[in-house]
Amino acid sequence: MTRRQYFVVILILGTLSTISPFSIDMYLPGFPAIAKDLHTTIDQVQLSLTAYLIGISVSQLIYGPLLDRFGRKIPLYVGLLIYVVASVGCAFSSSIEMLIGMRLLQALGGCVGLVAAQALVRDLFPVNQIAQVLSLLILVVAVSPMIAPTVGGYATLAFGWHSMFIILAAITALIMVGIYVALPDGKQPDATLSLRPRAVLGSFFTVIKQPQFLTYSLVGGFATSAPFAYLAGSSDVFMNLYHVSAQEYGWIFAFLSIAVIAPTQLNRFLLKRFTSEQIIFTTLAYQSVVGLLMVVGTWAGWFGVYGLITMLFLFLCGQGITGPNASALSLAPFARHAGSAAALMGSFRMGFGACVSAGVSIFHNNTSMPMVGVMTGCVFLALFILLVSQRVITYQRAHKSIDEPMAEVAL
Question: Residue 33: how many CB atoms within 10 A of its CB?
Fold first, then answer.
């Protein structure tokens, strides 16, 4: 494809991938206003985030087989239409229970963007370029935390929290137009793939029994769950504990998003000298050290607002590196089942994210310890799984080839 086509495809895939980050980040500054308007508490509003993450986790398992069976475009249109309708429903919610339900439905539609974007990367680019392309996508995705909370804060102030969901619906409608006009079809429908439960489970089993996929999807799942603890707890910590305004919180959130953007692009250069496996191990070790310091410092009362922001920045620098490398290593063994592989990988990540956000809500104690403790625990667990599982992968590579074509590719 030409450079212009390459740019357009990356932009569309990136915006597809931003639907869920925008859906999560944009309404965070509105938590206090939502709680007040719906006569509930912050921890109950946090459960609307948990519901969204649960919806993404479950529905990715549905969209994966659909994307493999019917191609990429038809499931995309259906899912995004559901998202638009649910977003309008969120805007007109009159109770916290209705908001939680609408957020669940919103996730059931919007998560198609996550699965389809990664499957299309596998369709449209050579295997040895996947990690680099995913790094570019994360660059687009990483811009959303800089924009979304700030827009959400000002929209809440000017028009009320309901307006945020109308904005999300309008953005998604524009993305659908871009898909229709400029996005290649990718993998064609495969009528030989059955959607019967037994056949679907068989496809998932084919994917999950691959040690490389299982290892790096679990490692990536736990490692990328750490920011969900930050997402669930940060508005309460900064706005209620440190008493910053909704607008100030948006700017803090935007600043911390730089911690994801810069390393994402550094990853493209690191891949020229190191393997994805080496990069992931080093990054998780770094985050474990920073996380431990963050937990000890929080417990000892070392940090004011600026100290906590600094530690969060240092910790989040690892997210832009671990994510694309773990995704690339998870997807590399698959061609025919790329949609199912992307769905399982995304389901793991969002399922873990839902558990993590719920954990922050459950352990809520009017301090920042639940947030920083869960964040650190996520990377500790990811590093442990990586160390235990690498021997299995090394043994398999040495003694037998992988079933799927193009699996033995150095990333």
Answer: 19
Residue 178 burial class via C-beta count within 10 angstroms: exposed 0-12, middle 13-18, buried 19 and up: middle
Of 233, 234, 262, 269, nearest to 248 by C-alpha is 234
What mean pLDDT value characterizes the chain?
81
Domains within the chain, CATH numbers bracketed: 3-186+193-399 (1.20.1250.20)
DSSP string, 128-196: GGHHHHHHHHHHHHHHHHHHHHHHHHHHHHHH-THHHHHHHHHHHHHHHHHHHHH----SPP-TTS--S
Q: Give yes or no for a contact between 328 and 276, defined as CB atoms under 8 angstroms apart.
A: yes
Q: Taking a C-beta distance cutoff of 8 angstroms, is the pair 267, 319 a contact?
A: no
pLDDT in tens, 303-346: 888 888 999 999 988 877 887 788 777 777 766 666 677 777 87
Is the distance from CB of 93 to CB of 99 less than 8 angstroms?
yes
Tokens of 227: 């920011």
Structure-model confidence comparison of residues 134 and 109, the more confident one: 109
- Chain centroid, CA 41 distance in Å: 26
Q: Is the pLDDT of residue 402 over 70?
A: no
**207 backbone dihedrals φ, ψ, rounded to 5°:** -75, -50
Question: What pTM did the predictor assign?
Answer: 0.68
Phi, psi angle pair for 366, to nearest 5°? 65, 25
CB 360 within 8 A of CB 233: yes
